[in-house]
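Hi L.,

You mentioned the student needs an example of a multi-chain input paired with its predicted structure. This one should do, with 1445 residues in total across all chains.
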Amino acid sequence: MQARKKYLLVAFLASWLLLFLLLLGDRLRRSAFISQPRAGSPRRWPRWADRSLLGSFADPQELQDRGAPPPPSPRLNASSRCRMETCFDLGRCRRHGFKVFTYPRQRGQPVSDSYGKILASLERSRYHTRRPEEACLFVLPIDTLDRDRLSARYVPGLGQELGASPLWNGGRNHLVFNLYSGTWPHYGEELGFDVGQAMLAKASFDAGSFRPGFDVSIPLFPRDHPQRGGQEGRLRHGAVPPRKKYLLAFKGKRYLTGIGSGTRNALHHIHNGKDIVSLTTCKHGKDWEKHKDERCDKDNVDYEKFDYQELLHNSTFCIVPRGRRLGSFRFLEALQAACIPVLLSDGWELPFSEVIDWSKAAVVGSEKLLLQIPSAVRCIHPERVLALQQQTQFLWDAYFSSVDKIVHTTLEIIKDRLLPHRSRPRFLWNAPPGGLLALPDFSTHIGDFPFYYLQHGSSPSDKFTAFIRVVSPLSQPVLRLIQAVSRSQYCAQILVLWSCEKPPPPLEKWPQITVPLSVIEGRREPSDRFFPYAAIRTDAVLSLDEHSSLSTSEVDFAFVVWRSFPERIVGFLASSHFWDAEQQRWGYTSRWTNELSIVLTAAAFYHRYYHSLFTGYLPAGLRELAGGLAACEDILMNVLVAAVTKLPPIKVAQRKQHKEAVPQQQVKGTAPSSSRGFLQQQDCLNQLVDWFGYMPLVSSQLRLDPVLFKDQVSILRKKYRHLERP
Amino acid sequence: MMCASAKYNTRGPALIPRMKTKHRVYYITLFSIVLLGLIATGMFQFWPHSIESSSDWAVEKRSVHDVPVVKLPADSPIPERGDLSCRMHTCFDVYRCGFNPKNKIKVYIYSLKKYVDEYGASVSNTISREYNELLTAISDSEFYTDDVNRACLFVPSIDVLNQNTLRIKETAQALAQLSRWDRGTNHLLFNMLPGGPPDYNTALDVPRDRALLAGGGFSTWTYRQGYDVSIPVYSPLSGEVDLPERGPGPRRYFILSSQMALHPEYRSELEALQAENGESVLVLDKCTNLSDGVPAVRKRCHNNQIFDYPQVLQEATFCVVLRGARLGQAVLSDVLQAGCVPVIIADSYILPFSEVLDWKRASVVIPEEKMPEMYSILQSVPQRQIEEMQRQARWFWEAYFRSMKAIALATLQIINDRIYPYAAISYEDWNDPPVVKWSSVSNPLFLPLIPPQSQGFTAIVLTYDRVESLFRVITEVSKVPSLSKLLVVWNNQNKNPPEDSLWPKIRVPLKVVRTAENKLSNRFFPYDEIETEAVLAIDDDIIMLTSDELQFGYEVWREFPDRLVGYPGRLHLWDHEMNKWKYESEWTNEVSMVLTGAAFYHKYFNYLYTYKMPGDIKNWVDAHMNCEDIAMNFLVANVTGKSVIKVTPRKKFKCPECTAIDGLSLDQTHMVERSECINKFASVFGTMPLKVVEHRADPVLYKDDFPEKLKSFPNIGSL
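Structure written out for the whole complex:
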C-alpha cells in the first residue's frame, strides 16, 4: 500500500507544480511584454482611449484649398516626359477631326515587308488623308522598325534626315513605329535617333521608359503576318476540365549568358516530364559551345524530341518568357493557339495595355517567382481556364491577327485620347466584338449597342422603326405595306426614305395610320439607305423596300424573334454563298437551298447600330463600290454583321414565297436580266472578301417558325395563324 | 497541392498498450489529476482573457499621448528621394510575400511612437483621426499580421496624410530608423494632401526611397504606374452628413460648381457658362454674410441665396470638379456621395484607384482647354448613360470612398492583386454595382464559336431496366451520322446490364457506365468518356425521333452551343389565383423549357450541374427522383441568360397514339409536383431565370414547296 500512497503524493505534487508554473509563467510573460501572440488573436492596433478626441488630418478650409495660387500648367518639353497635353498639338485635330497623313514614299528608299504592311494599313484606314495640312497625326516613310545597329535593316543617318524634313517639327504629332530597339549586349530602349515629341508605337516596351497615355505598346509580329483578315484562333473545344495533354509547356533557347539569361536559364527546373514540359536548347548564336555547361548535351537531345507546334496546341498554359528583349513572337503564337500565356517578362508594358485587361487572358507571372508557377496554374479553377482560353481567342481575333488590326487598334487608342468624353469605356475593349467594332461616335453607353444586353442586364427596346426606301412614285403596294406594318403592335413610327426623282407627295396623299409617319429626303449618295438617321430612335429597324410585301403577323413574329437575337439580322428573304471550285471564286445564289448566309435587307429587322457601323466603320471607297453593283449593299451589310458577330443571320417563317422575284427588284432603275444581276452580285461578294481578307459569312441550316407553325392542331390555338394562310 | 482540399487522416485512434492491472489504477489516477490540473490552468488562462480580448488589451486603454517618445538625432540618416523608376519587379521584394493558398499578402503595422527632434520639439502630430481609422481598419482586416517576420508589406504608424502638418526632413529621418526600413522596401505610405506652397508638388515631398506611395493627387509625371496607388482625398463630410441615395433621373440643375477657392480664370469661365445657359447652370461661391456660429464649410452662396452643402449637390446632374492648387480634391468624394456625375477638369490627374476603376462609367473627363465647350459636351451624353453614371458614382463612393476603411482596403487589395495576379479581382467585381451584378449575366461560353461538325456528339442514355426499349433507342440513335459515341448510364444496382453479346451492334463505341446509386443526377455527370462538346441526353423510351430529326438537332446545337436544344417543349406560367408558378405541358404558342429526355447541350453544363448547382437543388432532385430536367433548364438559363431552342414540330416521342409525352405520366399529381419544382428552384435561384420564346427551329425548307429528295432533312415528323 506504500506504493499507492507514494504515487498519489507524487501525482498531487506534480499537478500543483504544473499549475503553479503555468500560472506564474503567464504572469511573467504578461508583465515582461514578451510578445508571444496566441494563435487566433493577434495583437491588433490599439483602440486608443482618446481616439474620439483626435484631430482631423486636415481642417475643412485646407481641404478647400484656400488661397490657391494660379494652377500650374506643366508645359515640360523634355520629350522623355511627354504627355498628350504637353507634347501633342490638339489644335491640329480640331478642324478636320482625326486624320492620319503618311508621307509619300520616296524612291530608292526601300522599306521592310513589315513596315510596308504598316504603311498599307494606314493608307487603308478610314482616317487616312493625302493632305498634310488637314492631318492630325503624321507617320514617317522611313523604316524605323529595326533599330538594332547590328541588323541589316538598320537605316543609318535617320536623325539628319528627320531634322531636314519640314513637317517633322521636333516630332510633334508624329507616330513612330518600332519593333526592335537597342542592341547587344543590353538590348535597351535606344533607337539611334531622337524621337523628340513623337509618340512611339513600340514592341517589347519597357514600363520604365513608357510614357503612359502617350506611347503605345504594340505586339512583336512576324514578317509574314498577314496584311488583313488573318488566321482564325485555334480553339475548337470548349472543354471543362480542359482536355489537353499538357498543363504547362515551353520550348526554346536557353541563354547561358547575357541579358535575359536569368529566366531562360532557370526554366528547365520546372520540367517534370509528365504534365509540365519545359525544354531548352543551348544552341543559338555562333559560339554557344564556348559557354556550354553540363546540362546542354542532354537538354539538346530532349529538345529535339518534342515539336514546338505540337506543344503549343496541346498545352493549357504556355510559358512566354522574355528573350533578349521583353517581348517575343511566342506571345502571339500562344494567343492564337489558345494556349494561355504565362508571362515571365518583368517590366514589360503589355501590348495595348492602355485598353486591354490582360488579367482576363493571361497569367502575368514574375520572373523571380518562376518556381511558383506550376502550383499557381494548377490552382486556377477550370471555369477560369475556360474563360481565359476564350478570351485569348477573342483578343487574337479582335486586335492581333493581322497588321491591319494592330495598326488600326493603335490609331483608335490614340483617337480615344483626343476626346476623353467620347471614348470607349474599358468594357467595350474587353468584350466581343471588341473596340474596333464598337464605335464611340455612336454611343459611349453600353446599353445602346446590340452586343451587351446580357452583361448589362437590360433588353432591347420593345418597339421598332419601319424604314421604307421608296425609289418610284407612290404606288398601291407601298401604301398597302405601310398600312400592314403600321398595324403591328410593336411599330413605333414609320420613316420613308424618299429617293425618287419627283418630290414626295403632300401629307394627305399618305395613308391614314395610327403611328407617326415622316418622310426623309434621300441624300442621293451611295448607300444612303444605311445612313444613321437621327430620326431612328428605337433600337430595332425594320428595313423595307417598296416592293416588299408583308403581313402584320409576319412583322410581329419576326420582331419578337429579333428581340431574342438583337445582334443579328432577322428577316424573310434569304440567299447564300458557296465556294465555286471550278472558277476558284465565291459564288452567290438566291435559289432555294438547304442553307442560308444572307438575309436581304429588303425585309429585315436589325439593330440601328449597324447603320452607324456601316457608315462610320467602312471606308467611303467600299461603300461606293457597294452602291455601284446590284444588291451589293445588301451583301455588304450581311458581310459586315457577320464579321462583327461571327454568326449567321436568322430567317423567319413567311407566308408566301416570293423568292424568284427578288433579284430583279434589287436592281435599281432599269431592269437588267437576272443573270447580269447575279454576275454583279458575285463580283461584289468577291471584292468584299478581298477587302475583309477572308470570307466572313457564316451559313445556317435553320429557320425559326412559330412554335405551332403548320402543326396539325386547330388553327384557333395558333397565335400567328395568318402566317399559314395560302 | 496546396490549393486542393485538405486531406483527411482516415486512420482510427491508436490502441492503448496493455499493462499490469495493478499499476493501471495509479496511472489512471495520476493521469486524471494532471488532466484536472491542466483544465484548471486552461480555464484560468482563457476565461478572463475571453472577456478581456473582446474589449481590449490592457495596453490599448492608453492615450495616444502616452506612447513612447523617440528622439531623432539631427544627423540621423535621411532616405533618398523617391525613385521614379521604381516598379514592382525592381523595388519590391516579392520573396517576402511567398506563395500561400489564400493568396493574401500579410501586412504589418509599426507600433505608434512620438518622434521629437534633438530639442524635444515634435516632428508632427502624433496621429490624426483618419490615420488612426485607417490603421484600425488594416488591423481588423484579414491582411493583418502582428508578426514582423511574416509580413510582406509594412505600414509605418507615422502619419503623413497631410504634408503640411509635418516637418519633412525629420519625418524622413523617422522613417529611416524604422526597424525593417531597408531603403523603404515593401513599405507603404498613405498621403492625401501632398506638396505645399508655392509649387504644390503632386506627390509627397518626404524623401522615402523605395517605399510605395498611396497618394491622393498624383499627376502622370509623379505616378509610378503599377507601383504607386492613387487614392481619393477623404472628405470628413462623408462621416458627418448622411445623404440618402437618390434615384437616378433629371435634377434641378444641369451643371453645378460648388468649389469655393477657384482660380479667378476658371471662375470667370464658369460664370460665362452660367450667363450663356441661365438657370440650368449654378456656380456657387463662399458666403460672405453668414451669421456667427454657422460653419462656413456647410454653406454655399450665389447672389445672396444660401444653399446647404453638400445637400445642394443632390440637386444637380453634373458637378464640376476642378483642379485647385492640388490635383486631388476632397469635393470629388462629396460629389460622388450625392450621386452627381463628376465633371473632372484637371489635366494629367490620375483618378483614384484608376488601376482598377473604370472612371469613364462614372464621370466625364474634359481637358482643361475644352472647358468653354463643357455645356455642349455634357448635352451630348445620352440620358440613359447619365442615369447609369449617377448610379455608378454613388456606388464608387459607397465601395471605395466613404470611409478610411474603404480606402485602406481597396489600396491593399490593389497591391494584393499585383502580387497574386492569378487570383486578382476581376474588372466586373471592382466596377459593377450590386444591382448590375444581380441583373447581368456573364455567359461562361461567351466566344461566338461554331463547333466543327466533325466533332460529333455523345449520346447518353439513362436507363434502369427497360432493356428492350433501350436497345431500340440505341439502334435508332446509332443511325445518326454525327454520333461519335454512345454512353449508357446503368442506374440499376440490383441487376447487371445484359451480356456484351446481347447489345445491338453499332458503328460507334458503346460504353456502359454502372452507377453506385440510383440517382437522377447520374445522367448529368461529366464522365471522362464524353470526349465531345455536344451531349445528347435521351431517355430509354424515346423511340419516335428520326435520324433526320436528331441530326438536324445537332446542327441547330452547333449554331447555339451555349443553349439547351431539345425536342419536348414546356412552359412555365404565373398562376394569378395561387400566386405562384405553374408547369404547363399543353401544346402552347410559347416555350420556356425543353426536357432533357431528348436534348442536346454542352458538356460544360454537366460540370456545372454536378459541381456548381446552387443551394440544395441537386440533393433535392435526387431525393425526390424528379425534375432533374427542370433543374438543368434553370441552371443553363441562369448562367447564360438565354432561352432554350425547341427543334422541329415533334410533340410525340414514345408512340404515335400517346397524347402524353412526359417521362412519367400526365396525371394531376405529376403536374403538381412539377409545379412545386419550379417554385422551389425559383426561390433557390432567387429569380426566375427561364426565358419565354415563341419560336422553334425547323430546317430552312421545312414544309416548303420543294422536292423532298433535295432537302437535307426530309424526314421531319409532323407531330
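You could point out the following to them. Chain B touches chain A through 180 residues (CB under 8 Å). The longest strand of chain B covers residues 483-490.

Best wishes,
N.
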